[in-house]
Amino acid sequence: QKEVEQNSGPLSVPEGAIASLNCTYSDRGSQSFFWYRQYSGKSPELIMSIYSNGDKEDGRFTAQLNKASQYVSLLIRDSQPSDSATYLCASLGNTGKLIFGQGTTLQVKP
Amino acid sequence: DVKVTQSSRYLVKRTGEKVFLECVQDMDHENMFWYRQDPGLGLRLIYFSYDVKMKEKGDIPEGYSVSREKKERFSLILESASTNQTSMYLCASSPDGNSPLHFGNGTRLTVT
Question: A81 by DSSP, 3-state: which?
């Protein structure tokens, strides 16, 4: 079974700090990776896609991919209380199916 | 923006009832998916479809079936609802096999 692993948390950071969310995956054939944000009781919302090694920045969000280490991360700069949510990492492998991690709960304290 | 619409936000059904969950997307996406999400178990794929009238089993298809008669509509059917099917059900679509999924708002189903 191909897996995506995340620390369930909660990860607690003060407002204005950098939140670092991490994810590892087992399928070396995975080519595409996504981060979703899910507020309690709501559906997942796509916030970042990354397809090649290195960093990809979008506003306060930076996704990082290291295929050699099979590692994906999401950095959130200047964290706000509104960033408090569960963050799901997902990988798309050769099967064409998206494999989700269990999610990391982030709490940003004012 | 992609819009994926699930017909009901909340649904309460009785054990043994046949239940239909409807999902419609407006972006002409080829692929559609049904997941359920439970605390501690994450998102689990029930069924998916890459084309009209085509369906594939996901990781937990038992007790469910699907129908895709039109490209934009993907229905999940619980043939005889049971209490262990109480869950949040999420429909999603994507244009192709390399793109991320776009989710509907979800249907919280309670089976009593």
Answer: helix
Task: Give the residue ranges of DSSP H helices in B32-96.
Answer: none
Query: In chain A, whose CA is at the least distance from the CA of B89?
Result: A43
Reported as half-sphere exposure (CB side, CA atoms, 13 A), residue B35 has a value of 23
- Token readout for A106 is 């982030």
CA–CA distance, B63 with B30 (Å, rounded to integer): 25
A:73-102 residues touching chain B, CB 8 A cutoff: 88, 90, 92, 96-98, 100-102
Tell me, yes or no, if A65 comes closer than 8 A to chain B by beta carbon.
no
> What whole-number distance in Å separates Cα of residue A92 and Cα of residue A95?
8
pLDDT tens for each residue of A50-96: 999 999 999 999 999 999 999 999 999 999 999 999 999 999 977 77
Alpha helices, DSSP H only, in chain A? none
User: How many Å apart are CA A89 and CA A8, to the nearest integer?
Assistant: 11
CB contact under 8 A, A103 and B100: no
